[in-house]
Amino acid sequence: MAHTQESVCCPRCSSTKIWKDGMRYTNLGTIQRYLCRNCGYRFSDSRSKQAFSSSDISKHAQKVHTKPLKSKPAIRSPRRVSGESQGRGASALLTGGHCLAKVETRKQERAAGATKPDKATVKGKILEFAWWMKKEGYAETTIITRSKLLTILSKRGADINDPESVKKVIAEQNWCAKRKINAVDAYSAFLRMMGKQWNPPRYTYAQKLPFIPTEEEIDALIAGTGPKTSTFLQLLKETGARAGEANALQWTDIDFEKGTVRITAEKGSNPRIFKVSNKLLSMLRALQAKSKSIKIFSKHLRTQRRLFQKQRRTLARKLQNPRLLQIHFHTFRHWKATMEYAKTKDILHVMKILGHKNIKNTLIYTQLIPFKDDEYTSKVATNAQEACQLIEAGFEYVCTTPENIMIFRKRK
């Protein structure tokens, strides 16, 4: 509540419309301060001078008595201070004055940079873009990746309404050429949604041959991870499926009687069906006994990947094998295709296993690694049951000795 002091008047304009403005604590004592509502002049109670000597007053007079809060034009405003501010006294007036100044400053900045959208507008546009891609039938991973790229570009200073600004920010990033191409594709799709066009920058990247681990390294990962992750990895090893295809499998896709797994393709590939080993079927049965979901792997693929990466780091440190850190979910697909081509030398067979519709995508596996004749693991079988087990484990029949011992081999 405002307190008007009848006995105190402003030394500048002689107005009696005065507010108390707190106390000033000095080494010489406590001084009451006032604020003039008419001109905004701040001064102290002249009666406080009597408590001090004239020398003390002369030393502190300039600091205490002549410190203007604001200029007169800044205080005299056509705006009315709210009743709530009036109830808080002089400090509310000061706060209100500062707030009004800030509002004016923000308005000026907004007027100066009217072309730059605020964060809420950018976020709304990116959400609109994600929904547009959903309606257009884009895959979930594509929607997430492109939305994330646009968000990153916006946070790093790009104006998504200005193609030249986006082009500049992309060029400044310390990204590989492939990621920059993905960013260009994401923004091109955004402009298609907006009905606009641009001249996209040109980025090219040198295609690298994928890393192919040994089967022993893959088996070490499968053996060292948890039950769900090891089953997921074993499925990738035997089928060469994409991680997204494997993660989308339902229990109805597994035929335990025939020992087959039916893969529903993604990214425009062909669907496939695979005969799998008894080992994988046993692992799947163990999961089914505890599962309450229609999906085999109920976790989101990103969660599944983070869990695998954590277990992979632990195994690489435990086994002192840094090569394990280079193995990703897609590495199992590369390994499967490479092994199948090395075993059959039939590129069409590999193309069918991977579900490719274009053979150009399959030809890369013909040049991955050189295979030598001595890179085999040999096993023998003395009866039909042992022979079946070796075949299910991926061994191929070589010959039978005069002692009726069957020899099998498998590439390392």
Verbal overview:
The protein has 4 domains: about 20-110, no CATH class; about 120-195, DNA polymerase, domain 1; about 215-365, Intergrase catalytic core (hpI Integrase, Chain A), CATH 1.10.443.10; about 375-410, no CATH class. The strands form 3 sheets. The protein has a 3-stranded antiparallel beta sheet, with no helix packed on it. A 3-stranded antiparallel beta sheet has the order 4-5-6. The termini are far apart. Helix content is about 50%, strand content about 10%. The protein has helices at about 55-65, 70-75, 85, 90-110, 120-135, 140-155, 165-170, 175-195, 215-225, 225-240, 245, 280-290, 300-320, 330-345, 345-355, 385-390, and strands spanning about 20-25, 30-35, 40-45, 255, 260-265, 270-275, 375-380, 395-400, 405-410. The relative contact order is 0.06. Residues about 1-5, about 60-65 and about 70-100 have low confidence and may be disordered. The chain has 16 helices and 9 strands. The chain is elongated. With about 400 residues, the protein is mainly alpha-helical.
Topology, please?
Blueprint: E1 18-26, E2 29-36, E3 42-44, H1 54-65, H2 72-75, H3 83-87, H4 90-112, H5 119-136, H6 140-155, H7 163-172, H8 177-194, H9 215-224, H10 227-239, H11 243-247, E4 254-255, E5 260-263, E6 272-275, H12 278-290, H13 301-319, H14 329-344, H15 347-354, E7 376-381, H16 384-392, E8 396-400, E9 406-411
Helix pairs in contact: 5-6, 6-8, 7-8, 9-10, 10-12, 10-14, 14-15
Short characterization:
This protein is mainly alpha-helical. It has helices at residues 54-65, 72-75, 83-87, 90-112, 119-136, 140-155, 163-172, 177-194, 215-224, 227-239, 243-247, 278-290, 301-319, 329-344, 347-354, 384-392; strands spanning 18-26, 29-36, 42-44, 254-255, 260-263, 272-275, 376-381, 396-400, 406-411.
